[in-house]
Amino acid sequence: MTNETDSAPAPVGDEAASGEAVGGHRHAIAFVFVTVLIDMIGFGIVMPVLPSLIMDITGESLSAAAAYSGFLLTAYAVLQFLFAPLIGGLSDRFGRRPVLLVSLAAYAVNYLIAGFATTLLWLLLGRIMTGLTSATHATANALIADVSPPETRAQNFGLIGMAFGVGFILGPALGGLLGEINLRLPFFAAAALAAINVVYGALMLPETLPRERRRAFDWRRANPLGALLRLASFPALAVLALASFVYNIGHHVYPSIWAFFTLERFAWSNFQVGLSLACVGIVMAVVQGGVIRLVIPRLGLARTALVGFVGSALAFTGHAFAYTVPLLGFWLLVSGFTGLIGPALQGIMSNQVPQNEQGELQGVLASLSSIGAIIGPLLMTQLFARYTDSDGLYFAGAPFLAATVLTLIAMVIFVWRMRRELRNPAPASGSG
After folding, report:
1. Predicted TM-score (pTM) of this structure
2. DSSP alpha helices (H): ranges in 182-338?
3. Following DSSP, what letter does each residue of 58-111 receive, concatenated?
4. Angle at 237 between CA 234 and CA 240, to 5 degrees
5. Using CA atoms, how far apart are residues 23 and 11, in angstroms rounded to an integer?
6. Fewer Cβ atoms within 10 Å of its own Cβ: the N or the C terminal residue of the chain?
7. How many CB atoms neighbour CB 119 within 10 A?
8. Above 50 in pLDDT, residue 432?
9. Of 247, 299, 291, whose CA–CA distance to 421 is shortest?
10. Dist. CA 48–CA 273, nearest whole Å
11. Are 27 and 206 in contact (CB under 8 A)?
12. Contacts for 337 with CB less than 8 Å, ≥ 6 apart
């Protein structure tokens, strides 16, 4: 590592202060890892029981419950789309710490509401509340950008992916186990984890955006349309963001459909669904916490993302036609390639934006992700409901085939934009 201050976003001042800053940055990265880990445990803990809870509340079939689930997920995404640029802009103005803590507190309230819900309306209210303040991921990404030099930024984004993976190991397995005792118990456990995380953050989280690097808040840049227009002024980023957007629509097949799909095709229990999701988490943790740190220095960011696209398309297709548990397990292993895409794309785009606009960039990307989360769950759940209904053509794997098509479209867009870098890859420190 060099001592050039222009390549390290955090240290400002003399060398003595720089040593303290490095230590603080390590603590900040560790906190982000724990924050996202606990957040994803809370998210994953409810996934195995959500189909059963919706069927219990509504008295409807699994196909109908999947359709209702799509609307719940979409409500969250709509609010996140509207408010993510606002939250990202506020974190650039007031710092990452206060914004992150408010968001985490909202998660705790949401899970309590869901735990006591007796109607779909109460579940919907909880999703709306979370969507209003769901700054966790965008702000965590901005915090990582604050403390990471360009040459390690993609790998540190991969740490967030690793936290996602570990959270999906612990959360679904615990949720499936608790769900066998009581359908609502996982929601209360998630609320408790979120509340503990708020306390931990209030005590331990350092602020990573110095006052001298903050920018004035601008409402024109804080609304989703203004933010997207701002992105359009960076043509290279806009094309890459489009590829990420299209891919994310398809990738929503996992959180939207997996529990319903495995219940339908294999008649699994809540605990078995939870274990299968835990397996997904293990694969993601290995890829984003370890494999990606070996792949990026050797292939570069662009080729790493391309490998991820190819593997993801194969995995989606394999899931669609997996009629035995061993075959499903094989394609779960292949799906680990999807963990290469997000950190590589994040690294490419983040390295092209000034330091004091990282929060805005992450807010814009979160907005695009939210649009994908509006379209993706609706598309996947409605496809599942349509092709598992007894009155129509039956094929439970239809959503996975749709995800394959979307992934291939995203890959074509990405290859077109990065064709020069794919032919002549730069060293890992370059974004491409």
Report:
1. 0.74
2. 185-204, 219-222, 224-232, 235-251, 253-266, 270-286, 292-320, 325-334
3. H---HHHHHHHHHHHHHHHHHHHHHHHHHHHHHHHHH-HHHHHHHHHHHHHHHH
4. 150
5. 11
6. N
7. 10
8. no
9. 299
10. 6
11. yes
12. 287, 307, 308, 310, 311, 312, 314, 315
User: Residue 228: is its pLDDT beyond 90?
Assistant: no
Per the CB < 8 A criterion, the answer to whether 271 and 179 are in contact is yes
pLDDT band for position 236 (cuts 50, 70, 90): low
Contact status, residue 280 vs residue 426, Cβ threshold 8 Å:
no
Do the beta carbons of residue 263 and residue 172 sit within 8 Å?
no
Token pair, residue 164, equals 């996602």
For 251, residues 6+ apart whose C-beta sits below 8 A from its C-beta are 312, 338, 372, 376, 403, 407
Helix, strand, coil percent content, the chain, rounded in steps of 5: 80, 0, 20
Chain centre to alpha carbon of residue 243: 16
* CA 350 – CA 145 distance, rounded (Å): 8
Tokens at 367, concatenated: 């907005």
- How far is 428 from 54, CA to CA, in rounded Å? 46
Q: Residue 375 has which token pair?
A: 């379209």
Distance between alpha carbon 98 and the CA centroid of its chain, in Å?
A: 21
> What is the distance between the alpha carbons of residues 415 and 31, in angstroms, rounded to a whole number?
35
Look up tokens 């608790």; give the residue.
178
What would the pLDDT profile of 167-204 be if each residue is shown by its tens digit? Answer: 778 888 889 999 888 988 988 988 888 888 788 778 87
Phi and psi for 65 in degrees, rounded to 5? -60, -40
CB atoms under 10 Å from CB of 323, counted, come to: 10
- Structure tokens that stand for 239 in this block: 């094309």
